[in-house]
From TrEMBL:
Residues 67-167 form the Glycosyl-hydrolase 97 C-terminal oligomerisation domain. It comes from Salegentibacter echinorum. InterPro entries: Aldolase_TIM, GH97_C, Glycosyl_hydrolase_97. This is Glycoside hydrolase 97. Pfam families: GH97_C. Keywords: Hydrolase. Gene3D superfamilies: Aldolase class I. One of its GO terms (molecular function) is hydrolase activity.
Length: 181
């Protein structure tokens, strides 16, 4: 099986004019695959020049764990969508991935898998409002929030889209000034 998430250029004709194929995904969906598709042999599958255009999104690839201590399946409908939270082995860091099918939807997530009494910084890499896997796959937005085990999130996923979240344990000084979910 080929584990090659992280494609940021979806239009293959830009690489080879004779190839009119298209990766049916958004950048946010590609980031989420690092969490939803288990493999301790991850890689960055695209060309360096494509990552250089989106270094803020590439940060998730640099941060995401590759081996997991715990996995929590938050929501799923076979053939339509899945949302998974995974705790990185030997850390208190969590990562959430949501991959979505062709129908836009809003995920509803409770962060009750986080350790009670601790604060975290959640960095959300999500589809932008106008994202779509065919017409605007590179549209994304990145937001940061303060979260804990009582936090809840409603997050939209575009057609062929999704979202990825890094959740890093933080002290009170680090979360100061961040909006709470």
């Amino acid at each position: 099986m080929d584990y090659t998430p992280g494609i940021f250029e979806m239009d293959m004709s830009k690489l080879n004019p004779e190839n009119d194929s298209h990766v049916n995904s958004t950048i946010a969906n590609q980031l989420a695959l690092y969490v939803t598709m288990y493999s301790p042999l991850q890689m960055a599958a695209d060309l360096p020049q494509h990552y250089k255009q989106f270094m803020d999104a590439f940060q998730f690839i640099k941060d995401v764990g590759i081996d997991w201590e715990r996995s929590v399946y938050l929501e799923a409908e076979p053939g339509d969508y899945i949302t998974i939270a995974r705790k990185e082995k030997n850390t208190n860091n969590w990562f959430v991935g949501n991959v979505n099918g062709e129908t836009p939807r809003t995920a509803k997530i409770a962060f009750d898998f986080l350790e009670k009494g601790k604060n975290y910084i959640a960095t959300i890499y999500a589809d932008a409002e106008d994202a779509h896997y065919k017409t605007n796959p590179q549209a994304y937005e990145i937001t940061k929030y303060r979260v804990n085990s009582r936090s809840k999130l409603k997050q939209k996923s575009a057609p062929g889209g999704g979202f990825a979240i890094s959740i890093i344990e933080a002290d009170k000084a680090e979360v100061k000034g961040l909006k709470k979910l």
